[in-house]
Amino acid sequence: MDQLQLRELEARCIQEEQPFCTAACPIHVDVRAFMAALARDDVRGARKVLDRTMPFPEILGRLCDAPCRPFCKRGEIGDPLAIGSLERFCVSRTQTMVKLPKLPNKGGKVAVFGAGLSGMTAALDLARKGRPATLITPDDDIGGRLRSLPAEILPGEALAQARTILAGYGVTVMTATSLDDAAVTNLIDQYDAVYCDRDAVGALAGPFAAGEPDPLSLALAQDGCFAGGGLGTDGNYSVIKQVEDGRRAALSIERFLQKVSLTAQRDKEGSCATRMVTVIDGIAPAAEIPPADPAQGYTPAEARAEAGRCILCECMECVKQCVYLREYKEYPKTLVRRIYNNLAIVQGTRNANKMINACSLCGQCTVICPHDFPVAEVCRSTRQEMVATGHMPPSPHDFALEDMRFSQSEACRLSRHQPGHDASRFLFYPGCQLAGSAPDLVVRAYEFLSGNLTGGVGLMLGCCGIPAHWAGQQALFAETLDGFRAEVAQMGRPTLIAACSSCLSVFREFAPDLAVTSLWEVLDGLELPAGERRRPEAALALHDPCTARYQDGVRTSVRSLCAKLGLAVVEPALGGELADCCGYGGLMQFANQPLGTKAALVKAGRSRRDGLAYCAMCRDNLAAAGRPVAHLLDYLFAAAADPDPLARANPGFSGRHENRARLKERLLASLWQETSVARPAHAAIPLLIAPEVAALLDSRLILEEDVRKVIEHAERSGRYLIHPGTGHRLASFRPVRVTYWIEYETIDRGFRIHNGYSHRMRLPEETP
Amino acid sequence: MSTFSFAEATAWQCAGCNRPLEPAEVKVTYLNSVFTVELMVCPGCGFVLVPESLAVGKMLEVEQLLEDK
Hints:
The complex is a heterodimer.
Chain A: H1 3-12, H2 20-24, H3 31-39, H4 43-53, H5 57-63, H6 83-92, E1 110-113, H7 117-128, E2 133-136, H8 156-168, E3 172-174, H9 181-190, E4 193-197, H10 198-201, E5 225-228, H11 239-258, H12 300-307, H13 317-321, H14 323-327, H15 332-344, H16 353-358, H17 364-368, H18 375-388, H19 395-408, E6 414-416, E7 426-429, H20 432-437, H21 439-452, E8 457-461, H22 466-470, H23 474-490, E9 495-498, H24 501-510, E10 516-518, H25 519-524, E11 540-543, H26 552-565, E12 569-570, H27 588-591, H28 593-604, E13 611-613, H29 616-624, E14 629-631, H30 632-637, H31 652-672, E15 687-689, H32 691-699, H33 704-717, E16 721-722, E17 729-733, E18 739-747, E19 750-759
Parallel strand pairs in A: 1-2, 1-4, 2-3, 4-5, 7-8, 7-9, 9-10, 11-12, 11-13, 13-14, 15-19
Antiparallel strand pairs in A: 6-8, 16-17, 17-18, 18-19
Chain B: E1 4-5, E2 13-14, E3 19-20, E4 22-30, E5 33-41, E6 48-49, H1 52-56, H2 58-67
């Protein structure tokens, strides 16, 4: 990722866009922060917000005509916030909290003609920028039109405080000073730049007599002369317009004195558009809470309640749904920044590695995002970059990649034409996870397909390679896909029937030359198997897998099959193209195990009902999270007398391993009358493992095969420890990159397993 | 570099040598890093015990730290 890509990505996330009120405000007061402070009873904190943006909070806080109000999102569900009354409440009860800095004197002499609010603002802003300003008025005090306001609207102290503020920043105030034609001409010569507050002094002589100022810079035809303030184009007097013009003029004069463009990059000044999106679904309507005594204004309790109605507009639409973004407390813009910084580290700790590897790559956020932010693609391509540069830690993906290699090994892979055929029109590809989770269902589905489709239905067992793709291992992924392609070619390029949405997505995206369809669409086109079937007692929540997000045909056929089977299903709160990942996607559960469990629980929790999945990983992960869940094939092919599919346990990693190997042996023997390759010596070691020990080993990613290897090695070499009290043995073995320790005892016919753990650090006597 | 000791009295004994384990310095390696630590080792054959608490605790912590370097 380079910096340009980073910027482009960042720009797509709108979470840091201004909320609607702030964008509409001509001086962009952070209304959201103001409301949040008041809502938590932090009136001083609210005052700080005003002090940071408003030139004279004591005045503007009492008088602002609040052009932001019509843009308040709360207006769509109740009334817009009473911002004016709340600001008045705030400034009436607080003193100045933040004094903005004054930059060192940069020179340049500036005069401001007229001391209305616009002139006062221009003089103050210029003084803060280090440009000494002289405020000149024919009146005997500053304030212009404000001086005529009654004290209950604007108390005298407010203007007195304004005088103090101006003096504090070194503004020279010249009252009772003539601004007649001769004086104006004379003064223009004495100053480098002049701003005319047209509300306070009207149209003056010379350059100020005629002509409208440029709306963007307020510059007049004569260099160094600027004018603003006064009535708006609608003929009304707006307090905030006076401030906006004064501020705009001060910035123009600063630019004029610096001899830079008066107009470049000023589109965000003044009231502007925002790309913010705030979804108000689910927010209860709430009417404005007016003060009980309008003359006295809000009481603290009333102000707190009214400010508490603020929705605190933000986007966060993806974060609301995504367990991963919530876990890492990021939204896409901050996430991508962290990823960029992580990639940029040359020496030091790459703290974001785990985060990068924990995304499920499911793409739900991209569908939700108004600007299609591609979090998954960013994370995945970052993994690829980490692999390419040698910075990918080995532990997050080792296990899944080994599992994939096993599925691709001679122990599991299989490719055959239908018995009695020497060609295949179709090729059933159940995928590694269905073979691991429910080998019986693979057998029954294959029997059904080969009995109901003509032209020969071949069978292929293996792995599509998606774990390598997810792990950023491009070379391994390409190799797997090439091997797969060659094998399909050898079978005569039949139409693939994929049972797994992940396989289907891989083939469609990376092998578009192959003819591919889904098992579900094929089944939907066939007469379903006859016979008495088991039915669940209540309607089930239909859980789409995340990888079927862009597979409308699959999702439609699944629903059609459910209807044909008489299976009552309901849609969970989030499904279809918004479906969550179960925690397996992107190898999330290997990079961050607790997060994987959370993801499964979130997915299951989208409905209170028992679940129905048609992805084997969703099925097993939801089951592992303790939720009753069946696979659609259970209801298609299981007989009424079969055990309740909703109660089928998660087979765990060892179970899946074993299932895959046994499925091949079983199919070879029963359908093709072939014997399998001999299993290694350790495969015959009988183990006795209590369920809680099996669960511990599974969570520690220790396969029974690893356990057998340890025991085989220990018993053969005699190298193990023995516990004199219990008689247990403790031994270790390092097949490849992980050292496994197994505590066991010898029993009559095999070994009872008591414990297992592992480490990646290498001990001196270990070679690999 | 000083040697960290993870040696703790243990009931485990070496089956092959029929001897109790004793603390000894051991070099463990991971991703091009080498650490000398004190562990319980069989004085006869050099069998090194990595107890469960160490494997799932400090050792895992250091492994992950090194992986992110």
